Amino acid sequence: MRTRFAPSPNGYLHMGHAYSAVLAHDLARAKGGEFCLRIEDIDAGRSRPEYVEAIYADLGWLGLEWDDAPVFQSARLASYDTAAAQLKAMELLYPCSCTRAQIEKAAQTKGPEGLVYPGTCRGGKADLSKPHSWRLDMARAVEIAGPLHWHDMAAGTVQAAPAIFGDVVLVRKDAPASYHLAATLDDAADGMTNIVRGMDLFTATHIHRLLQALLELPTPAYHHHPLLTGADGRKLSKSEKAPSLSQLRQSGADGRQIAGDLRKGIFPAGISPDNA
Ligand code: GLU
Predict the structure, then answer these.
(1) Is 178's C-beta closer than 6 angstroms to any atom of ligand 1?
(2) Is 21 in the pocket of ligand 1 (CB under 6 A)?
(3) Three-state DSSP state, 253
(4) Is the Cβ–Cβ distance between 208 and 168 less than 8 Å?
(5) Which residue, judged by its Cα, is nearest atom 10 of ligand 1?
(6) Rounded to the nearest whole angstrom, what is the distance from the C-alpha of residue 123 to the centroid of ligand 1?
(7) pLDDT the model gives residue 175
(8) Contact between 103 and 232 (Cβ < 8 Å)
(9) Sheet of 221-225: strands edge to edge?
(10) How far is ligand 1, taken at its centre, from the CA of residue 104, in Å?
């Protein structure tokens, strides 16, 4: 068994990250498997080295040791390019020069990740002199892949329904891949057998499962755990005022004790899992 914790270094981790890391770590360790750390830093504009340092320190403080050297997505750009080229050769990607405003104006439906792209640039209509992303031709991809499912440790067998996302971006204008493409490729490259992550990424798995089929990658088992919410009932987030793990660590709180409590389902005051 191999699991991973895959934070984006664009802010300090909070209790929800600690919970996710503890679950991923313990799942692997219970089976004598490996727990890995992947730094999802393809977003060069938002990733900062001090957040990476804090991730190391926070995990150490929680008493979580990882195996292998940490993987940095910024060091894997060539593999994302190769996969994108493969999808282009299969005529599954097309360039899109639409701005956010243009999409907001033309979009007619909403999917799990916001507006469904109305397909304006499909059929070679992008203005290639402008910055452009590359989108998946979802209808064609779904047709090629056929029916797909994955095993979810909480939800059981889930039929993948990626079509509702529409033509998602797989290569961003400002980054050499999207989260979906990079994460799917890395999970396969690093031999992940079980993906432990928050419920907020449950819907993303529909797309990841499709990409696995198109790129002939293995499908791991998934465990989407409840998100932690604060006293206001809203999920903890990096941008909110929820105390960061770094603050707790620096204030002298006992990280190993906190990790032990999270294992027993005991959460700090005001924090609880969203079991809805
Ligand atoms: N980097 C993502 C995040 O911090 C997690 C990705 C994943 O676990 O697949 O939310």
Answers:
(1) no
(2) no
(3) coil
(4) no
(5) 7
(6) 32
(7) 87
(8) no
(9) 156-159, 149-152, 221-225, 194-198
(10) 26
